[in-house]
Amino acid sequence: MIKAKTHEFFMQKALDLAKQAYEEGEIPIGCVIVSGERIIGKGYNQVEKLGDATAHAEMIAITAASDFLNSKYLKNCTLYVTIEPCVMCGGALKWSQINKIVYGAPEENFGFWSKEVSGIPKKVEILGGIMEEECSALILNFFKERREA
């Protein structure tokens, strides 16, 4: 059992959302944004469902958290996402002024840090590898099933 209010606790919430995306035929990535110890925004990939290339988990969560705070800035917030954000989402996170980004598994093809894209301010704390095996397994299984179909 995962202890409440730890990185693993919030990553599990993001992983639950990724599983929802998986069940809907979307690339299984989930995300939550936390202020204090409260989830104020959440999202999962809905690109196919919405027919919108920008409907990534992070973008949906950023919008929800911004609505919750009634602010375009997410200062003093932490984003938890199952897979390393892409360049588009990394840019949005920069503009949101979020303080901390925690991701599960790296994304070597399109990931913001894996591609060594600069732009996130140095004061933003970035932590990867939280529940990496679970996050990675979900997305690998998703693509394996698609290749076999």
Short note summarizing the structure:
This protein is α/β, with parallel strands linked by helices and 149 residues long.
Q: What's the order of the H and E elements?
A: HEEHHEHEEH
| General form | globular
Number of helices: 5
How is the largest sheet built, in terms of strand order? 2-1-3-4-5
Structural class: alpha/beta
Q: Nearest-angstrom radius of gyration?
A: 14 Å
Separation of the first and last Cα atoms: 35 Å
Low-confidence stretches: none
Mean pLDDT, all residues: 90
State which percent range the strand residues make up.
15-25%
What does this 3D model show about the protein?
With 149 residues, the protein is α/β, with parallel strands linked by helices. Helix content is 41%, strand content 20%. It has 5 helices and 5 strands; from the N terminus they run αββααβαββα. Strands 2-1-3-4-5 form a 5-stranded mixed sheet. The longest helix is centred in the first third of the chain and has 17 residues, at 7-23. The termini are far apart.
